[in-house]
From TrEMBL:
The chain crosses the membrane at residues 20-36, 70-87, 93-111, 118-133, 139-163, 184-206, 287-305, 311-333. This is Fusaric acid resistance protein-like. Residues 210-328 form the Integral membrane bound transporter domain. It is a multi-pass membrane protein. Its main location: membrane.
Length: 359
């Protein structure tokens, strides 16, 4: 299969609708409750807590409970840190630096305890997005909402085996990757450098072009390509990120082009979450057509803004971050490239020696 065909191919389905349904319900229950009590201004905190359900798909009940509990704890802590930044009215530079630290520690924890999806994309997103809110909820309330929402996802995960979610049969048994201390340090450094550089460029672009906003989207896009285990997968994750997000922005523009009530945005978020999870393991670009609207509509539910600059910012900042991620992918894994370089150098040396030998 050539590179272009990968954008139009779908991997075989593996009962993806079951975890997708569970995750969507985990998002729906907190949002519908907040809508019922008239507190959709808290929706963003609930949504980040609900992202707990994304972790530990198709794992055993015990493994899912342990890993979702850990992921939910980190997500709740990320929201709490962001809420503190919001309460302090921290500027974009402070938010970026704190979110970078969260990214590093979150990525190391995810690698150490084999959380899937890997990396720190949701942790950095929660910290930076909540930290960028002006006049947000009190710290205790934001943390409580995220904690309770995460708890709902964990409870749903505990009963997921009742609807058929279980470990997938594999031709080759999955081996849990073991990281040495050096591996974890290098891993943390990659998840520090990428968001730090991308966040810096995002803030500078915002200062140069006033229409731009949300520099943390560059940070999120920068860490997305680093998580996959192989170089080719990392490269294509960055390209898929740009292509899929651009398409997702168009989908979001269509949805936001109509006069909408808050309840309609909630419905779109729930449906988009389900569709995104349905395809995320089969075609990342296709999944981003639905994942991108989730992020954009989520910010519009409780804190509506003019969608035009929002959509522009999402496109530009994602491109900046993905390019930074590509740079980290190209130069941030030297231990993977050294053996290949040594083999090539050895082959060139042997050819030179062979040419100089008398015949």
């Amino acid at each position: 299969m050539n590179h272009l065909q990968e954008f139009f191919s779908l991997r075989p389905a593996q009962r993806d609708h079951i975890p997708a349904f569970r995750i969507a319900v985990g998002v729906a229950l907190p949002l519908l409750l907040l809508m019922a009590i008239g507190r959709l201004d808290l929706a963003i905190y609930a949504a980040f807590g609900a992202f707990t359900g994304i972790y530990a798909r198709n794992e055993s009940p015990r493994s899912r409970f342990l890993r979702q509990s850990l992921a939910g704890g980190i997500l709740t802590l990320s929201v709490a840190i962001g809420a503190v930044l919001s309460a302090l009215a921290a500027g974009p530079w402070a938010v970026m630096l704190v979110a970078t630290v969260v990214s590093a520690f979150g990525a190391v924890a995810a690698a150490r305890y084999n959380l899937k999806p890997a990396g720190s994309i949701f942790f950095i997103f929660a910290t930076a997005a909540v930290g960028s809110i002006e006049g947000g909820a009190p710290v205790w309330l934001a943390t409580l909402v995220a904690f309770l929402s995460a708890g709902v996802s964990v409870v749903l995960g505990m009963g997921a085996h009742l609807i058929g979610e279980r470990p997938l049969p594999r031709a080759v048994p999955m081996v849990t990757e073991r990281f040495s201390r050096r591996d974890l340090v290098e891993h943390g450094l990659r998840f520090t450098v990428a968001p730090l550089v991308a966040g810096t460029l995002g803030i500078l672009s915002m200062e140069l072009v006033p229409q731009l906003s949300h520099p943390y989207w560059a940070m999120v896009a920068a860490v997305a390509p680093i998580a996959p285990p192989h170089r080719k997968a990392r490269f294509f994750r960055a390209v898929h990120r740009i292509v899929g997000t651009s398409g997702g922005v168009l989908v979001s523009a269509f949805l936001l082009s109509f006069p909408t009530e808050p309840w309609q945005l909630v419905v779109w978020v729930i449906l988009s979450q389900f569709l995104g999870e349905l395809y995320v393991g089969r075609n990342y670009s296709l999944a981003l057509l639905f994942i991108t609207p989730v992020a954009l509509l989520m910010t519009q539910i409780g804190h509506p803004t003019d969608p035009g600059p929002l959509l522009l910012a999402r496109t530009v900042e994602t491109a900046i971050g993905a390019l930074v991620g590509l740079a980290v992918v190209a130069w941030g894994f030297p231990h993977e490239y050294r053996p290949r370089l040594f083999r090539r150098a050895g082959a060139m040396g042997r050819r030179l020696v062979d040419r100089r030998r008398p015949r």
